């Protein structure tokens, strides 16, 4: 099976609306999710949630671990619960096949070699500020970030980002791409929010907090 076939398999796995809801719930959660919590969030029975969650595991979209949620150990502690989290791999589907990732790498390499980091950041901030759906237009920032794939979640008073939409490029060109991402979010967030480099485990390098004067 080719990589293209794998991507089509993933696309098929998400065709079911219940399965999509379960995937979004698990993928956007800051911690591992059990079957009961996933079922409640998706509004389905535990047995149906278990069926679809395991199908998502088979497709490579979710990963599994086992842990006793009570924290107890030894005899009488009960069986470990099956917990789900977003899998590390990523899939892209394009019909017909395209190769935007190759273009992205070439552009990033060229910008980095030319030392155009500041120019890239300025362009990214301007693009974020000009976005008609950005927080500067009065839109809800959490929803804006969710639509753009950041999977935001609250950690106390800090809005953290569970997913990096530029993950592959950020791993290869961390300084360049993370700086661009920070500038983009600075423009997108408007004056009410302050983005800063504050990575969460397995997530985006940027976190946001509300300015106190707002």
Automatic annotation (TrEMBL):
InterPro entries: ArsR-like_HTH (IPR011991), WH-like_DNA-bd_sf (IPR036388), WH_DNA-bd_sf (IPR036390). It comes from Kitasatospora griseola. The lineage of its organism: Bacteria, Bacillati, Actinomycetota, Actinomycetes, Kitasatosporales. This is Transcriptional regulator. Pfam families: HTH_20 (PF12840). SUPFAM superfamilies: Winged helix' DNA-binding domain (SSF46785). It comes from the Bacteria. Transmembrane segments: none annotated.
